[in-house]
Design brief:
Blueprint: E1 7-15, H1 32-44, E2 51-52, E3 61-71, H2 77-86, E4 92-100, E5 112-120, E6 134-135, H3 142-152, E7 154-157, E8 173-184, E9 187-194, H4 201-214, H5 219-228, E10 243-249
Parallel strand pairs: 3-10, 5-6
Antiparallel strand pairs: 1-3, 1-4, 2-3, 5-9, 5-10, 7-8, 8-9
Helix pairs in contact: 1-2, 3-4, 3-5
């Protein structure tokens, strides 16, 4: 590949994460990153490294994951997008391809992200949501959950609401700018926006909110957990399949 022909491209990607081991390349499982890189290699004619805005775990979905890759191609962006989708499995789609400056980095240029988590509260689970929502048929106190959401919103050390803190390489302090709980019929949607997220932070927040809604965890207890800055068995991690990376902000 000639250096002078290289262009940095921003890729916006939607995927159903059910059949994948997550975003990141890893041994013994197929990843989203692997599929994108394989499709690009077919089009470009040589290996291309793709950098995502962040990891999504096995079973987690994305409405608008963002990645970037630097390579040379004669295809205009719209043609490149069609070519990528022609070489990708049906559960992964590149929804936009945009040339960007070489300094753009999908992860380090991001200023924040939004995740959404879906909970199906029907007595009998909707079979069409089984891959995309946590089935929770027991009563939930939305007023208590929203009170807990207000407590979580803001700048905190989120060690108590994440998993495996040893993976944190900088600081466990994050700023949650928005945390809402909305009901659409039998489906609850928890939306969380922040300047960054720790490992399994959204699923831990969801697990804590649901536990508050069940009456098994009080808002004062959650306040003490946050202040304690230590993960305990009181916090449960919600299943992966209800989670979507909804948007990455730049």
């Amino acid at each position: 590949m000639r250096a002078e022909g290289r262009q940095n491209y921003k890729l916006t990607i939607a995927y159903d994460g059910t059949e994948y081991g997550g975003w990141q390349l890893q041994p013994n499982t197929v990843s989203i990153q692997q599929q994108i890189e394989s499709a690009l290699a077919i089009i470009v004619g040589e290996p291309v490294r793709v950098h995502g805005s962040g990891r999504t775990d096995a079973g987690v979905h994305a409405r608008a994951q963002v990645a970037h890759a630097i390579f040379s191609t004669r295809h205009p962006p719209t043609t490149l997008g069609r070519a990528l989708n022609a070489n990708l499995p049906a559960d992964i789609r590149v929804t936009a391809v945009q040339p960007v400056p070489v300094k753009f980095h999908a992860r380090f240029s991001a200023t924040g992200k939004e995740y959404r988590y879906q909970i199906d509260t029907r007595a009998a689970a909707d079979p069409f949501l089984r891959r995309y929502a946590w089935h929770h048929p027991w009563s939930l106190d939305l007023a208590a959950m929203r009170c807990a959401a207000k407590l979580i919103t803001g700048r905190h050390d989120f060690t108590a609401l994440s998993a495996n803190p040893l993976r944190v390489i900088d600081t466990p302090v994050r700023t949650v700018t928005k945390l809402t709980i909305r009901r659409h019929g039998p489906v609850l949607t928890i939306s969380v926006s922040a300047n960054g997220f720790l490992y399994k932070m959204v699923r831990s927040i969801t697990g804590a909110l649901v536990k508050v809604g069940e009456g098994r965890l009080t808002v004062p207890q959650l306040r003490d957990l946050l202040a304690g800055k230590r993960r305990t068995a009181l916090v449960e991690t919600a299943p992966a399949h209800g989670l979507f990376l909804w948007r990455v902000r730049y």
